[in-house]
Amino acid sequence: MAAIVYLEPDDEITSAAARMRGIEEIRIALVVPYGSRLATSRINFRLLAREAQGRGRRLSIVTGDAATRALAASAGLPVFGSVGEYEETEGAPRRRPTGPGDESASGAGPDVGDSTRAIAAAGIVAATTATARQGVTHGP
Q1: 73: helix, coil or strand?
Q2: Residue 34 half-sphere exposure, CB side, CA atoms within 13 Å?
Q3: How far is CA 75 from CA 50, 97, 135, in A?
Q4: What is the pLDDT of residue 72?
Q5: Where are the alpha helices (H) located in 37-114, listed in sequence order?
Q6: Cα–chain center distance at 34
Q7: For residues 42 and 94, what is the distance between their CA atoms, to the nearest angstrom?
Q8: Would you say 45 and 102 are in contact if contact means Cβ atoms under 8 Å apart?
């Protein structure tokens, strides 16, 4: 069995890790919403991956936000564009609603394909970000 945990946009790394600690299932999918504070740093995803690994859990990230998928993938986590995509790949997990209305939530966003594309996008986003930080511009 697997567990799906829906995070709130204002959840910090500490609250996400604490929620993971309370789960007995081996497979955990964190559904990260658009604009999540957690998705501001690759380090956050590395810390979550370390927390999961230390507890013998397999963590995946589910989000409709391509930039968040890229960050999570760059931290070595499996990423999915929707809960439906996760369920197709990992099997039908047990959902953990986090608030009113979450019981019927179908996913974090549109299904964007397999995690391979998200991992490839991670390299593109990282290269684009590095170029922007260096002040490099293209064109006339």
Answers
A1: helix
A2: 7
A3: 10, 26, 25
A4: 96
A5: 42-54, 66-74, 83-90
A6: 10
A7: 27
A8: no
CA distance 39 to 106: 21
The size of the chain, in residues, is: 140
Sheet holding 58-62, edge to edge: 79-80, 58-62, 27-31, 2-6, 94-96
Distance in angstroms (rounded) separating the CA atoms of residues 39 and 68: 6
Please tell me the distance from the alpha carbon of residue 73 to that of residue 67, in angstroms, as a whole number.
Answer: 10
Full pLDDT tens readout for the chain, 140 residues = 689 999 999 999 999 999 999 899 999 999 999 999 999 999 999 999 999 999 999 999 999 999 999 999 999 999 999 999 998 887 654 555 444 444 434 444 444 444 444 444 445 444 444 444 455 444 44
pLDDT number for residue 2: 84
* Residue 76 to residue 118: CA distance in whole angstroms: 11
Backbone angles phi, psi at 62, to 5 degrees: -120, 125
Q: Which domains does the chain show, CATH number per domain?
A: 2-133 (3.40.1260)
Q: Which candidate, 110, 39, 113, places its Cα nearest to that of 77?
A: 39
